[in-house]
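user: Please supply your own:

assistant:
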Amino acid sequence: MWADLDQDNNLDIALLTINPTRCYWIKNLGDQVNFSAPIMFPGDFSSLNYIYFMDVDNDRDQDMISYAIGLEKMFCTKNFSESPQLKDLHIWMKMKTRSSIPAKSRSSFNPLS
């Protein structure tokens, strides 16, 4: 998943691995094709199947949306800082799943409503 996680106008890579399930941030250092070593996000990702990034709360930073198929739950991990630190990625809240929203309303889907 490509997303500018540190707001430096370079697309970073977020990677969810399975067996063991871990989530990594690979920072784009901005010089041609130059990336940092993978940085593991703290926390338990064992039930997650998908991750996405979007600005959920309109504060101009990328928040992580994740989905756990077996639990039928969607989660949001809020990014609180202008320059994200890994500690920012600990807060989880249960959200509505997109499938519970009527199809014609999905284009304006707000998971926090």
About this structure: The beta strands are 2-3, 12-17, 22-26, 39-40, 50-54, 63-68, 73-77, 92-95. The two ends are 25 Å apart (CA to CA). DSSP finds no helices and eight strands in the chain.
